[in-house]
């Protein structure tokens, strides 16, 4: 489950209806976990503004865990530092590594993936109910719920399943795309609410895709395309800040859906992973620092030619297709051999 913060305030207000509602999700003899994506001190400070967190006395069957996922201007500054480092061709190796580390981008990725893995472990290994929230429930909350589903649910790793995940966990859940994806990292003026929350999610998905290259039906191109259309698009899918705004603007009548374009057979082939083999197992990504890499397809796309990578990709596709042809021939020969052996057996029998 996901939600916004409870409005406990400084007086420690409680809502018995809320307590009954989330207790109703508990299985017999099981406890639940509330994962708050804010550090404890931030959650405590929110009480002064009417927000807060669940009190243990009112939620005795739930264990509250605080994780630290950054938001808003901190993430935007991190993106700006990373882009500046990637575009600076003058510095040496030490300077490059120093600026990459100073951006803290991969640290943010690690925090998000770690929290998602925690939620997935509580669900998969303990069969526990999970409630995830931060402040509004429309940023870091969605990163965690989405990634936990990708880890646990094989359908979320298919093209249609991933599209449904974004529709459900980002668009319908109210992620304010218009505010968060206003001007990217290249604008001189700072927008108060701008933050690369969705890009961090896509980067986290890419990290898992890189570690499990055969478990995803889609490839990196789909993630890059979604990043581009979140910031600037001829489709109406990512316009506005929530479903209410999109209804008022009548975007469904006035614009085309991004998915209707992506799902055309001529386009779909660009986003299909030739290595995909359906995997019904849970996949556990490594969050060790050595396992996380800079997403070159986004951050170094203009700095180096993709010619050789494209050629290597085409060669890989050719090898996979040739392997399928050989496998089909092997299957035919096996059937023919089985038929011949059956015929021989019938001739030898009296």
UniProtKB/TrEMBL annotation:
Keyword 4Fe-4S: no
GO cellular component, one term: protein-containing complex
Occurrences of domain Myotubularin phosphatase (ranges): 1-299
Organism superkingdom: Eukaryota
Keyword Coiled coil annotated: yes
Coiled-coil residue windows: 309-343
A single GO BP: negative regulation of autophagy
PROSITE patterns tied to this protein: PPASE_MYOTUBULARIN (PS51339)
Alphabetical UniProt keywords: Coiled coil
CDD domains referenced in this protein's UniProt entry, alphabetically: PTP-MTMR9 (cd14536)
Pfam families (alphabetical): Myotub-related (PF06602)
MF term (GO), any: enzyme regulator activity
Family in the record: Belongs to the protein-tyrosine phosphatase family. Non-receptor class myotubularin subfamily.
Protein's UniProt name: Myotubularin related protein 9
Species, as recorded: Monodon monoceros (Narwhal)
Lineage: Eukaryota, Metazoa, Chordata, Craniata, Vertebrata
Encoding gene, per UniProt annotation: MTMR9
